[in-house]
Each structure stands twice: as C-alpha cells, then as structure tokens.
Amino acid sequence: MKLKELEKVDTGILGTLTELGHEQVVFCQDAATGLKAIIAIHNTTLGPALGGTRMWNYATEQDAITDVLRLSRGMTFKAAISGLNLGGGKAVIIGDANKLKTEAFMRRFGKFVQSLGGKYYTAEDVNMKTTDMEYIAMETKYVTGLPESMGGGGDPSPVTAYGVYLGMKAGAKRVFGSDSLSGKKVGVQGVGQVGAHLVELLAKENAVVSITDISQEKMKIVSIEHGARPVSQSEFYDLDLDIYAPCALGATLNDETIPRLKCALIAGAANNQLKEEVKHGYMLMDRSITYAPDFLINAGGLINVYSEFLGNYNRQRAYQQTEKIYDTCSSIFSMADEEKISSQEAAIKLSEKRIADMGKVRIPR
Ligand code: NAD
After folding, report:
1. Pocket of ligand 1 from Cβ distances under 6 Å
2. Considering the domain boundaries, does residue 151 fall inside one?
3. Which residue's CA is minimally distant from atom 30 of ligand 1?
4. How far is CA 310 from each of CA 151, 199, 262, 313, 361, rounded to the nearest angstrom?
C-alpha cells in the first residue's frame, strides 16, 4: 500500500485497486428495486472489513468509486491504528436517498452484504436511518452500529467527540506545552452530532469557541446551550484561532484554505480532511500547523461499534479504549518529528506496520 494520491492514479480500476491495496470491490445492481451500490473491501488482514454504508446522489459513477475507495482505505488505517482486529471496508449506494429508498431496496442491499459471508460488516453512515438499518438487518447478520432498541451500541457520536477532544489535547500539549484547552480559541466547523458534543466538552474546559454551520438552526441551539460564538461560513477560514476543528465535510484542507488558516493546530472529526493527503499534509507542515490525523482521532465511533461487534457491548469499555487516542497521537507527533515526515504519513506508517506485523501472526478469521 503506497501513500499515493488517488486523484493522480489513472491506470483503470484494477490498476487503482493495486495501487491502493484493495482486495475486492463488488458492484451491485438490482433492476427490480433500482439499487446500485458498490462495496469496497480494502484489507482484511486484521479481521473482517467493517465500515458504514453511505447513500449519495453522486454526479458521476467515478465519484462514487473514488469515494468508496478512499473511505474503505481510511477504515483500514483507522482500525489498525486503534488496535482493533478489524479490516477496512465501506459501501456506497448511488442515488437520491429521498426518492429511492424503500423496504425492498434496503433489504436487497442487505442480501448483497449477506452474500459476502461476513467478509464485510456494514453500519450506518450518511443518509442511512434507523429504519434502513432495520431492513438491512432483516437480510444479513453482518451489520453493526445498530440502535440500542435493536440491541446495538446506539449513537456513536459522543464517543467520537471524546476521541477528537483527546486528540486535540495531545496536539495542544505538543504545540502550546500544556494540554489544557482553557482560554484557547477553537473554531468548530459543523455542529452536527459530533461537533455539538465536542463544543460541549470544550465549553466545560473554558475554551473560547466559535462555530459555523450551514444550518442556522443548529448554530443557534449550540450557541445558546454552550455560549459559543456563531460565525458565517465565509469568515470562518479567516478567524484568528489557536485550533481549527473540521467536523463537517472532508477535503476542507486544500490549496485555497491552507494559506488562509490562522491557527497552530488542526484536530477534528471529519473524514479525509486533507484534500490530497501527501501534498496538503506537507503544506501544513511548511506552515508549522500541527495536524492531528483524522482517522486516528475520530476513531471513537469505530471503537464503539467494535465493542458491539465483539458481542458484548459495553460503552464504558468503548470510552476506556478511546482514551488511548491521546497517547497514540503524542507518539505520532514524535515519530513525525523524528522522521521529518507529515503526521498523516506517520499515522499511515504506524497503521501499516501493525497490519504487516499481524499478517505474520495470521489471525484466524
Ligand atoms: P452530521 O451530519 O450530524 O453533522 C455535520 C454538520 O456539518 C451538519 O450540522 C451540517 O449542517 C454541517 N455542514 C455541512 N456542510 C457544511 C459546511 N460546508 N460548513 C459548515 N457546516 C457544514 O455528521 P456527524 O455525525 O456530526 O459527523 C461529522 C463528520 O465527522 C463527518 O465528516 C463524519 O463523516 C465524521 N465522523 C463522524 C463520526 C460519528 O461518530 N458520527 C465518526 C467518525 C467520523
């Protein structure tokens, strides 16, 4: 698995899979229900591939392929660096979630998941609702992240937010010499499930929090509840901050935004924050901005699901395991300094090392 920019890979689908190290990609279509889905299994050395199903009205099929390949690869690294015995996978369903989803549509998707015989476990992701997961679970046992009412672990976002908060503290220790966030100016972009919980943790520690969101309503609620200052999206990147926490969408660290940022640390929940992981990882380094790798610090949700996957869900244990993010993050910063590489590259190296080491052990599946 080479650290390579997906955008620059242009060798056909099998060439791309070889470059990125994917084991298997399954294209699913069902004319009767109108289902079109792609399931990507990146690496199963550590265990079955686990990752959520996302439904999105992709502009092109290539966009869907790019998304599922990037996301599944990220899941491999996330599980590996978190010490979980899971591989990386992801599924995307192509189309308008408001128009296409029916019981038959979701159950047909569940059948495709079941047909993989446990090599891939699915979970909830963007545009998947509890009822959709209920339908999927009628057709497959290979599903996790279920609501508490269905015997699952429930909403993972508080655990994710806790991990991001600890990753942010580890970053603060490196950058400011202390992991206290009291008085630190933190900008949280996106106050949805994770962002809102993160703001709560920051407010408890007396950080000075600014927030932005495309939803005025969410901004208003979080601002009132936690005393955070709402700012418009357009002014957000120019704020004078100590810490920027991307908690909305991916690719917000790019050619346009990085030169504008006035912060010393980036630590947030969004997946794939670096638009191009090599180029933008090093651009941040050049600007002396410390970056806490997203797949490391947002792993709390996966750790929560893992507890459910083991068959004995225990939220306290999930929180305890999430606490390791602080130390792992500190090690990554030291490794990046010693080897003069970006923190993203260091985190990927550490993940790949665990996969290679455990590959020798050959964990029975
Ligand atoms: P969410 O949908 O609840 O929240 C996202 C928020 O971002 C929404 O309030 C939305 O209005 C806002 N938003 C969208 N576009 C925006 C923009 N351009 N500018 C500002 N705000 C914008 O999602 P979430 O569950 O809170 O997850 C947030 C991010 O963290 C996502 O990227 C998700 O993939 C990632 N993540 C979430 C979890 C989890 O446990 N929920 C785990 C790992 C990673």
Report:
1. 156-157, 160, 189-195, 212-215, 218, 233, 247-249, 269-271, 298, 301
2. no
3. 270
4. 13, 31, 43, 7, 20
CA dihedral 158, 160, 165, 169 (to 10 degrees): 150
| Catalytic residue list contains 90 | yes
Query: Which amino acid residue places its CA nearest to atom 12 of ligand 1?
Result: 190
DSSP 8-class letter at 122: B
Same domain, 109 and 203: no
What residue numbers bound the domain in which 16 lies? Answer: 11-75+87-143
Interval between CA 48 and ligand 1 midpoint (Å): 26
pLDDT tens, 174-202?
A: 999 999 999 999 999 999 999 999 999 99
What 8-state DSSP symbol labels residue 188? E
**294-352 pLDDT per residue, tens:** 999 999 999 999 999 998 899 999 999 999 999 999 999 999 999 999 999 999 999 99
Q: Which atom of ligand 1 is nearest to the CA of 212?
A: 20
- Catalytic member of 90, 101, 119, 275: 90
Q: Which of 130, 233, 249, 307 to mutate to test the pocket of ligand 1 (most atoms within 8 A of CB)?
A: 249
* The pLDDT of residue 363: 57
- Other CB atoms within 10 A of residue 260 CB: 10
CATH code for position 132: 3.40.50.10860
Could you tell me if 69 and 189 lie in one domain? no
